Amino acid sequence: MSQTHRPNKPKHGLFEFLLGGLVCVGVPALMTAMAPVSWLEFTRAGEQVRVTTQTCMFFVIPYRVNELADVKRFETTFHRGDELHKRPGDGKHGRAEDEAGLVLYGPQEGQQVSVPVSPASIKSVETRLKAFLEDPKQQNLSLFTVANWKVGLIFAIPVCLLTVLYVVGWSIWLGQTLAKPFHALRHDESFEPDEAVDERVDP
Questions:
Q1: Which H helix or E strand runs over 182?
Q2: Which residues contact 145 (CB under 8 A, 6 or more apart)?
Q3: Could you identify which of 22, 101, 129, 143 might form a hypothetical disulfide with 26, taking C-beta atoms 3.0 to 4.6 angstroms apart as the criterion?
Q4: CB count, 10 Å around CB of 143?
């Protein structure tokens, strides 16, 4: 008597889940945390200017939130990237990425908030913030800053698509897994035994 061998279905194990999470979630999270985007919200109330800063990974998930009740002044910082030698003794060398930032100060010593800003955008941020602080008629100002446009957006957006695909894939698998018992229950309820058919013979 021949037996039919059915191919084994692949199983989703813990190792595959952790490996997929490390690659598809961990790498984009690390990249967007190293070159984060920040959202700054300034609100004027009388003579005081209040600011809330949110530094985010995945562009919208805050991992650092700071508030300053009364912004008195600010300054910008700039650090030129150090030279990097590719090999010991090699005459060829490169340069690390330049870094810039915005530092907001409160009325008391030690009250300050720092936000990383791309060197390409620091002048624009400085101009907009200076105009807001000097104009009492302006009540609100929203700023969006990126620490590094190349790493934080241009490279990060395609990589973050891995996270979207990972979440969508596991959501579909989880939904199908949870739905199996309900489909089986509906199948059992809809099953009815065949009714006997009366056979009548005409005289």
A1: helix 156-190
A2: 37, 38, 40, 102, 115, 116, 117, 118, 121, 125
A3: 22
A4: 20
Beta strands in the chain (DSSP E): 37-45, 48-57, 61-68, 73-79, 83-85, 93-95, 99-105, 112-117, 140-146
Residues 6+ apart with CB under 8 A from 161: none
CA distance 84 to 94: 5
* C-alpha to C-alpha distance for 129 and 115, rounded to whole angstroms: 13
Task: Indicate the domain borders of the chain.
Answer: 36-85+94-147
Residue pLDDT, tens place only, 101-149: 999 999 988 899 999 999 999 999 999 999 999 999 999 999 999 998 8
Burial class (CB in 10 A: 0-12, 13-18, 19+), 28: buried
Cβ-Cβ contacts under 8 Å for 23 (sequence gap 6 or more): 162
CA-to-CA separations, 157 to 59, 161, 178, in angstroms, rounded: 9, 7, 32
Distances from the Cα of 5 to the Cαs of 1, 2, 8, 11, 12, in angstroms?
A: 13, 9, 9, 18, 21
CA 57 to chain centroid, in Å, comes to 4
Q: Flag whether the pTM goes above 0.70.
A: no
